[in-house]
TrEMBL record:
Positions of the YCII-related domain: 1-105
One protein family per Pfam: YCII
Domain of life: Bacteria
Family: Belongs to the YciI family.
InterPro entries: Dimeric_a/b-barrel, YCII
Protein name: YciI family protein
Length: 116
């Protein structure tokens, strides 16, 4: 099952936990296992553009649309057997130690979400 792993950082973060894993090692290990299919950092929220269409008109807003404490800093696409494996992979990411990791499953092939 594929999962989108959103890597979020607390903007008030000051000091890295000395016991936190190294991100380069996390990437290398999960790439080697074939779990991490894709991932990258993204530009800060100040570079975001929010797009909405209302009444047929395209409306653009600089920055994120909603105020949040945790800001998305990057993402990874994971291929895991189940949620338990995805949680274990996410828990090994350094940002789980001083930020937030959000996991969202992809729809199964052919699923339209009508039942959820």
């Amino acid at each position: 099952m594929k999962y989108l792993m959103l890597v979020c950082v607390d903007p008030g973060f000051k000091e890295r936990d000395p016991g936190a894993p190294d991100v380069e090692e996390w990437v290398k290990d999960n790439d080697a296992k074939g779990i991490r299919l894709l991932g990258d950092r993204i530009r800060p929220e100040s570079d975001a553009t929010t797009v909405r269409v209302r009444g047929g008109e395209v409306l653009l807003t600089d920055g994120p649309y909603v105020e949040t404490k945790d800001l998305i800093a990057g993402f990874d696409v994971l291929e895991c057997a189940d949620l338990d494996e995805a949680v274990a992979v996410a828990a090994g990411h350094p940002m789980a130690w001083h930020g937030v990791i959000e996991l969202r499953p992809f729809w199964a092939d052919g699923a339209d979400g009508a039942d959820d």
